[in-house]
């Protein structure tokens, strides 16, 4: 039972931490971020397993974590409010060429991030060429160019 509770606690904690960090943190993983994720993985493994490194313990723990993930997936499909809470919603960052600074700050996205997405996806060079820039649920920035271009 302790193993089950550890698995649930760690799962919920990591879900909360990555939700607080925001969408962009996972979408733009740097080399340092990758190393940090490896360290988090090691710390999580130690917290989950404690001193019991048996195969049986690992299999039970994997089953618990996958089970929790499956339950959340089913619940998110059934309850849209839970889905929006856990996964977020798309967020408009630029509207008719005007950056929405409050939303950009909230999402920890700067003008250069938006212009990079505009250049890569549409070859746009100026903010005024963007009709909408949307931070998607997966952390990517979608660009809808102005129709005048």
UniProtKB/TrEMBL annotation:
Residue spans crossing the bilayer: 53-72
Location (main, coarse): membrane
Chain ranges of the YetF C-terminal domain: 79-147
Residue stretches making up the YetF-like N-terminal transmembrane domain: 12-71
PANTHER family for the chain: UPF0702 TRANSMEMBRANE PROTEIN YCAP
Family: Belongs to the UPF0702 family.
Protein name: DUF421 domain-containing protein
Lineage of source species: Bacteria, Pseudomonadati, Bacteroidota, Sphingobacteriia, Sphingobacteriales
């Amino acid at each position: 039972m302790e193993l089950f509770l550890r698995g649930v606690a760690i799962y919920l904690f990591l879900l909360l931490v990555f939700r607080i960090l925001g969408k962009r943190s996972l979408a733009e993983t740097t080399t340092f971020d990758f190393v940090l994720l490896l360290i988090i993985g090691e710390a999580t493994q130690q917290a989950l397993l404690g001193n019991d490194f048996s195969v049986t313990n690992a299999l039970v723990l994997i089953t618990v974590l996958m089970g929790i993930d499956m339950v959340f997936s089913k619940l998110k499909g059934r309850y849209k409010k839970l889905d929006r809470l856990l996964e977020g919603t798309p967020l408009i960052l630029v509207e008719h060429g005007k950056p929405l600074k409050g939303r950009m700050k909230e999402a920890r996205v700067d003008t250069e991030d938006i212009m990079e997405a505009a250049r890569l996806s549409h070859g746009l060079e100026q903010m005024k060429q963007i009709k909408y820039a949307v931070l998607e649920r997966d952390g990517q920035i979608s660009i809808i160019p102005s129709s005048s271009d």
